[in-house]
């Protein structure tokens, strides 16, 4: 019984995109491991960018800094 956890930032992932992620992850378990799709669980965890870090920096702050840098001539 596979349990697949997909974590993404909460920045506008659409219903349709989530449906494709769930279907694709399930199909992969069926194709690669021969798992029963009815026994394959896929959970999408949307994480606020304040709770996600990269390079020692909160993603929210990193994105703000990058946006400000792009606005400078």
Automatic annotation (TrEMBL):
EC top class named in words: isomerase
Keyword terms, alphabetized: Isomerase
Pfam families: Tautomerase
SUPFAM superfamilies for this protein: Tautomerase/MIF
Coiled-coil residues: none
Enzyme Commission code: 5.3.2.-
4-oxalocrotonate tautomerase-like domain boundaries: 2-61
UniProt-listed InterPro entries: 4-OT, 4-OT-like_dom, Tautomerase/MIF_sf
Family the UniProt entry places it in: Belongs to the 4-oxalocrotonate tautomerase family.
NCBIfam families recorded: taut (TIGR00013)
Protein name: Tautomerase
């Amino acid at each position: 019984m596979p349990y697949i956890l997909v974590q993404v930032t909460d920045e506008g992932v659409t219903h349709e995109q989530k449906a494709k992620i769930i279907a694709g992850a399930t199909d992969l378990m069926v194709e690669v491991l021969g798992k029963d799709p009815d026994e394959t669980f896929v959970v999408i965890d949307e994480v606020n960018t304040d709770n996600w870090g990269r390079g020692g920096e909160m993603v929210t702050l990193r994105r703000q800094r990058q946006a400000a840098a792009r606005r400078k001539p």
